[in-house]
Amino acid sequence: MVRGSGRGRGMPGRGGMGRPPFSRPRVMMLRPPFDLILAEPAFPRCKPAPDDTALTQALLKRHAELCPTPAEQAAVLSLVTKLQTVLDNIVVAPGDFAACQLEEVRQVGSYKKGTMMAGKNVADIVVIMKTLPTKEAVEGLSNKVSEELNKLMRAEGLGNAGSACHERGFTVSTGGGAQASSAVRVLVTTLHQNLRKLEPEVHLDYKVISSHLAAIRHSRWFEENAHHSSIKVLIRLLRDMCARHSGLEPLTPWMIDLLAHHCIMSNPQRQVLPINVAFRRALALLAGGLFLPGCAGLPDPCEAAHARAHTALDLPAQDHAAATAQTLLRVVARGGHRYVLGLQAFEGGKDISTEITVWDGVVVSPLAPAYQETPEPMDTDDKDEEVPDGVAA
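^ thats the sequence. predicted structure below, dont judge the formating
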């Protein structure tokens, strides 16, 4: 046998004619948008930074308007404290209450994070059930909580509280009177091992139950990582801006929380950025495609590896958010920050994010949508025509 007679002549797996074609798995490369804050060492400033005193004052003034009043905070705190007491008593000593068994009670949402908005006196509490969350169990828990809560309120000489069930649990609310009205949403979920046992016709929706478990993770992460006051200021400003401009409405509170934390804390110096710099950065990142397909976006610290927060948005919403941010960023660059923040209404009640406006002779027009849904091609009879033998189709 000649040395090497079997090499390179069709031996499977060793090269030659028998070697299978080499195919490398395609990997999607996610790229971040250009961020001047992170790229500042590569782009040193040639002249001093512009005076942003007017923007800073406008941001702080708008934030002061968005903060809840002491009366609103006191009303929510009073209701949350009483409701927490009632739920804790049911967890520890349920007595003759047999509609369900409770494992734990957690405060979540904007009230827990300290980002509650003025005029929105609503707090959120997640109740984790040991048993499966049937609709009858939720209704029974609502009646029990309402009964025990009214006992506490009558003992203090206060009015009665009402309770109403919905697809996420139930809401407990108190009327106005001498004290400001307030409400607490009691969001029902169950233990993680019970998720596979849920039945759509009997129990609460699987997605709703999972989102309540995620809300607990979000509040825990926020408490550990985003407790700085500047982050809370930026969250209120961004939430207000998203509520007033239709293109930014699809952004969820969790996306806004992650965006505010990133804009304040993520920088080469690891220092808290000023609120005016962080606000401009948030608009610039959204305008640069932070929440567009193919962008790295913001990793979700409470989900599995490589999960991105903005994937919850559909493609038209991602496109609309980027286009709206680009329009608002151009308005801010021309000195129209008071209109973007809502401190001043535009002439004729125009929405500056959807209509053409002029700023010192510069025309700012909203961008046309870049994403367009293409309908699937319809099958026609032409494709089914018979082709004679020997003729290429």
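The CA atoms of residues 289 and 322 lie 6 Å apart.
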